[in-house]
Amino acid sequence: MRVLIVGMSSMHDPSAAIYPDVPAASERAWVDIDLAAVRENFRRLRAKAGVPLVAMVKADAYGLGMVPIAKALGARFGDDAETSDAPWALGVATLHEADELRRADYRGRIFCSAPLTVRDLPQTKRLDVRPALHDADTIRSWAAHFGGPWHLAIDTGMARAGVRWDRVSPLCEAIRFLPPEGVFTHFHSSETGDGSLAQQDARFADALSALRDVLPADVLVHSDNSAAIASREPSSEHATTRHLARPGIALYGANELPSLPLEQVVALRARIIDLREVYAGESVSYNATWSAPGPRRIATVALGYADGYRRSLSNRGVALLWGRRVPVVGNVTMDMTMLDVTELGARCAIGDVATFIGADRGDVLRTDAVAAAGGLSMYELLVGLKLRAPRTWRL
Ligand SMILES: *Cc1c(COP(=O)(O)O)cnc(C)c1O
Question: Exposure check for the chain: N or C terminus, fewer CB within 10 A?
């Protein structure tokens, strides 16, 4: 993959546009990432949460570029001073991701949310990562041989990682040895409003009270991901019992809830590379899933599922072209996707740029809406955008 980012130090200058709006004419498909929109979403999440944030930048910032996103958020790289509104920490899921941040000379805190084993501990220490631990042996090993801040992971119903909320007492001995800097849980359905968030809150509270005697008074309690932050009432007592929050997807402009409007961050664009006429009854693309109801003008766009435009958007997606929404017809292929551009007439030409996610000429295809059209998880849609299309970052 081509790395388009250059002169990272200029990223602290908000006026420095390091990329032209549209890449070189040879570019077939590309992903535009609006860093000002990420910053604005961070600001709104910070205000809504009312506590410092661990910015989740795992999985290459959900496919959008971990280092450029971290820099845009004012995280501390090199000798630069940390901005006062910078994230409290960056959140990763693997030590490899932490290593990438350290290689880029990130000097702030790193929280690793996924469990680590005893074998990972030397590297955890070397990279100065705050691990999420949950079993007595690993906690004792960390305390005895490495030390340093760590966070206790509590499973309140996700059943993925952490100690069960009703089985925390056996950990008290190990925790006394080296008390954690933080204690956290993770919600499984915070965007659904199904009552599970309240149940998990209650289980988390039970676990915290069982650990009351061994947790430091100033332990950092955290639970909320993007949707949980958005769903909290401003006056809730919850606000006084949490010290950090961990948003991911909302930073990247997806998973919008009515209580927290977000700026669109991503644009996925591609050029038209061929145009043809088809006649009534003739099919388009693999498996002939679409046939022309009459004479139609079909544009071939240089974008496919190898660029992250998923095959489930076949016959369901739309693109913005000359201010109109035009439908994807036939199956999305690995390298090309077809659009029915009949209603644009002769206006549509080879070289035109079609937008499949994001804004163009006053209209916007939101990441949430595109994912919904394809029956996709918006997380998977975003993460897939780093497959092949070059990414460009705009300040
Ligand atoms: C990924 C992750 C988050 C962020 O979740 P979003 O829904 O993207 O906001 C927070 N905490 C943990 C433990 C995670 O794994």
Answer: N
At 24, is the pLDDT very low, low, confident or very high (cuts 50, 70, 90)? low
Give dist(CA 221, CA 383) in Å, integer: 28
- The 10s digit of each residue's pLDDT in 109-144 is 999 999 999 999 999 999 999 999 999 999 999 999
The minimum-distance atom of ligand 1 relative to the CA of 246 is 10
* Ligand 1 contact via 223 beta carbon (within 6 Å): no
Instruction: For residue 120, give both structure tokens.
Output: 């990972």
Please identify every residue annotated as catalytic.
58, 286
123's tokens: 């590297």
Q: Is the CB of 113 under 6 A from ligand 1?
A: yes
Rounded alpha-carbon distances, angstroms, from residue 31 to 22, 239, 388, 391 = 10, 37, 10, 5
Contact yes or no for 81/109 (Cβ under 8 A): no
Q: Which atom of ligand 1 is nearest to the CA of 186?
A: 13
- pLDDT higher than threshold 70 for residue 391: yes
Closest CA to 368 of 223, 233, 261: 261
Kindly report the protein residue whose alpha carbon is nearest to atom 6 of ligand 1: 248
Verify whether ligand 1 is closer than 6 Å to residue 180 (CB atom): no
Contact 74, 131 (CB under 8 A): no
Q: What is the pLDDT of residues 205-222, one digit of tens each?
A: 999 999 999 999 999 999
Full 3-state SS string of the chain: CCECCCCHHHHHCCCCCCCCCCCCCCCCEEEEEEHHHHHHHHHHHHHHHCCCEEEECHHHHHCCCHHHHHHHCCCCECCCCCCCCCCCEEEECCHHHHHHHHHCCECCCEEECCCCCHHHHHHHHHCCEEEEECCHHHHHHHHHHHCCCCEEEEECCCCCCCEEHHHCHHHHHHHHHCCCCEEECCCCCCCCCCCHHHHHHHHHHHHHHHCCCCCCCCCEEECCCHHHHHHCCCCCHHHHHCCEECCCHHHHCCCCECCECCCCCEEEEEEEEEEEEECCCCEECHHHCEECCCCEEEEEECCCHHHCCCHHHCCCCEEEECCEEEEECCCCCCCCEEEECHHHHHHCCCCCEEEEEEEECCEEECHHHHHHHCCCCHHHHHHHHHCCCCEEEEC
